[in-house]
Amino acid sequence: MHNIFIDESCHLEHDNIPVMCIGYIKVPKDQYIQLKEQFEQLKLKFRTPVELKWNKFSNSRLPFYKALVDFFFASPLEFRCILVKYKNRLNHIDFNNGSHDNFYYKLIYFLLKSNPSDEQYRVYLDIKDTRGKEKLNKIHEIFTSYYNGESPFSHLQHIRSHDNVFIQLADFFIGAITYKTRMRLNSELNHPGRLEFIEYLEDASGFSLDEGTVPWETKFNIFDHQPKKSE
């Protein structure tokens, strides 16, 4: 049994940001309490009581952020995400029944379906809007159909990010990934502290954050999705 904590960045359709990312931290359920306590101990050690969020990045907390990277790669935690580049190219009319929401459900589906179906998973998503229950019902419907009523994703629930450190860690990793990717298109994104953290995470993972990893990577996996250019 695993717990999966999902967060997303730049997921809105008309936010004038050319990329989006959705990803998760996967936690072995039998080690959840121990790993959560280790995370909380790091926060105490570095005197960081606030919620971990990429958009609240602080240079003074850089040692804490790097310690979290070390913690992650020394632990059984796993990270996986889908990075969508060139969001303006998305063709919802031809591929998603005209709906950005349908594209969102597809991302959830492809994000999760790579997990072995002979295990069980409890899935928690960061609540983003008032349509949370509707979205959960749709995701449940999709997986129930795909697995002929025997979905391994036995539990789907929305929680708030400030209540869970693993959603916060997912937020921080996908925030770094979208920031690095956006740097290609916006030379003003050159925050020294963020760049130092990104380099540290790239060194630890062995991958460039703005590129996809090999498909079979299990510890730190980035699926690079680029919509086709319109003809």
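Above is the first protein from milestone M3; the second protein from the same milestone is given next.
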Amino acid sequence: MNLSYFIARRYFLSKKKTNFINIISIISMIGVGVGTMALVIVLSVFNGLEDLFRSLHGTFDSEINIKPAYGKSFTVTPQLLAKIRAVEGVGFIAEIIEDNVFLSYRKGHMPARMRGVPDQFIRQNGLDQAIIAGNARLKYNDKSYAIVGSGVQYILSIALKDEMNPIQIWYPDNSRKTINVSSPESIRKSSIRAGGVFALEQRYDKDYIFVPLSFAADLLQMGNKRNSLEISLKDGEDVDQIKAQIKKVLGANYLVQDRDEQHASLLQAIRIEKLFVYITFSVILAVASFNIFFSLTMLAIDKRKDVAVLSAMGAAPHFIRRVFMTEGAIIATVGTLAGLGSGFLICLAQQMFGIFKMGMESAIVDAYPVKMQLPDFVATGITIALITFVASYFPAVKAAKDIDIRL
């Protein structure tokens, strides 16, 4: 066994002459443990929120999205679709028409975001799992139906079984060179009945309405133009590899993005916030490490006679310095392990039982999501090690310096 570790361990376990030193040592371990536990839990919550964000958009967005690099729309031809389908791993291709519209139902009015999609889109993207009322279908018996967000339904008070009052969708007539909003002739109108209601996430629920692709193309006068193409991949395919191949096939006139790239700004905001939380808790741990500094300083004073005996037996100053730095490392290690263990158990309990609620009614998740990742535990351990080294260094140097003075 390493002699410096043996002595440091004896100092850690033995009762000090001054009981106050024991109290400070315990406070040091508790401070490090609580700080470590809090850091692990908070980082895991941010991981869970990031995963929740991805899962929500994973239902709404396809794995790969193709948009024009310039402008709002582009012409979709059979040749273009054939090029994309030729890429190995490409599954379902959904043509999308999307734009802002104005909705009217009975006495209610509101702006909304209309999305025209193929009939298979609802089930292909898993949106049918978010249907809370009505049916997950856009057409039935040659009739077109809309699927509206729960927020849209609430604002307009839409009744799904209302056969007498369809939803009126208004959109500017693009065939006119000038549009006068006060003139009825400048606005195109189409009627459609609501067939279902979805609840996914507030951002979508209060704004979106899904309609058949043909209905949207007719209302918006799009012809064979589309705002985007959404691609679902076959099972087990690599998104990055297929995305790169599609970019190569289509060229620079198209913007090809995966799910993360479609919402890069929001994901980046989550990661930046996670980084700042990590820095903030690291500073708190650094402040808590002052207890280690005081504990070792008082221990060095308490063990002056022991240090003198070791010096008389030939112990060099660097050996004494190593003893006290090891003592600080033991205090920090015990606190860190306790904190990591406690953080792991709390996160595990939250995953299994959802103990801590978000304090709001939600159709998506009622408890804080958590996801533990090994890099977070490793980063926390390294941070504690660096802070402990700095906190232990100066008391250890002082204890070794006392030997030099006596010598």
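Note on the second protein: The mean pLDDT is 85.
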